[in-house]
Amino acid sequence: MTKRTTTPAAPAVRKTRRAPESKATGRRAAVSRTGPLAGLDVAARHPLLPRLHAPSPTLSVRQHAYERLLSGHLYEQEPLVTRLVNSACELYIGRGPVPVSRFADLDDLWCAVSENFDNIDDRSFGAMLRQAGHRTLMVAGEFFVRRRDRTDSPEADFLEVPIEWEVHGPQYVPLDFTQVEGGLRWTSGIATYRSKAIRYKFWSEDPYDPSLSTRLLDLDRSEIYHVADPSLGSRRGRPILAPALLRAIKMTTLEDSELRRKQVASLMSVFAVRPAEASDDESMLPTDEEVDEMLDAVALTPGGVFQLPYGFDIKTFEPKDEGANFERALRWQVMMIAMAVGIPLNEVLGDEGVERWGRMMSQRVQRQADLVHEMYEKRLLNRMWRDFIDAAMAAGLWEPPADLKP
Questions:
Q1: Fewest CB within 10 angstroms: 16, 78, 143, 256, which?
Q2: What is the pTM of this model?
Q3: How far is it, in rounded angstroms, from Cα 380 to Cα 326?
Q4: Domain span holding position 276
Q5: Whole-angstrom Cα distance, residue 143 to residue 137?
């Protein structure tokens, strides 16, 4: 008997990815396996995460334009979104701001002539700011106010203080105007110097109206008030509804699907069937003409009594209705949309008993309103107040005290 000799197997070698070698030394570069950035490469390849790209200026312009179209469509077509925007305008703007300065006569002059500030001449100053201004800010992300000096114009005969303001949507300043012209660098229709806006490209008429002949004006910053809350590195504002767009689309899809399901569930199908045991006596069965006459005569009407021919029976089919959780799911979607915009849910749904923590919500709305007012004071109201004082002094309607600094 001979012994079988076996050769010991080589130990298993696990293949690993080699780190790149340094060109200068030929040695491997150190790779840290710990620290806050260790798992980012794994997370970036996760199939559930979206593929995001750095927003270039061209991509941002297209994205802003698409978001404006989508939010405008939802505002016009979706009642809950319409109610949400109108509620925000009512809560944050109301009847409009009233000046409170050291000079009571100047405040009274503003309140007396504020009805004529709008060039359309059918809205008060509060309505102009609420309907045309803040509504456009929420739907389109920004709006522009153009100052019109009427000192030497025919309109001065009808104005006590020769000044008016025109509220325009974001389409008046072209998003796609990005170039170098006259030594100025224009980005999305705005020329900047040391990161400050100094000039605006402004359409003379609404560019969306094909019946009007428009020309592109070059206006100074002193004539244009730009009201927006842009992100860092951007000159144009993003719609406030942007974080709620996806939720609003899902909510609309949910409503449509539930409506179709309830339409199907409300149907009742009626079938005239012939049981198998009725075929024993063939002489009693009706003819084909009698069957057609019976089907034409039978109708589902209240109080109707019909006698079926021999061998026929009626069976009904009613689809199953399982919409018990629809209202809860819809309310959740609306709550998410209201949360993204910063509006209490009861203001959107119109149900005063839907929220029990009214005091807490009112405090939150007050804080949000203070932030909105701060933005308006910085970007619009302070500049309008200074221009109004200059126009009142030029018209001889107000004189500052002699000891007041310019």
A1: 16
A2: 0.68
A3: 44
A4: 268-294+308-318
A5: 6
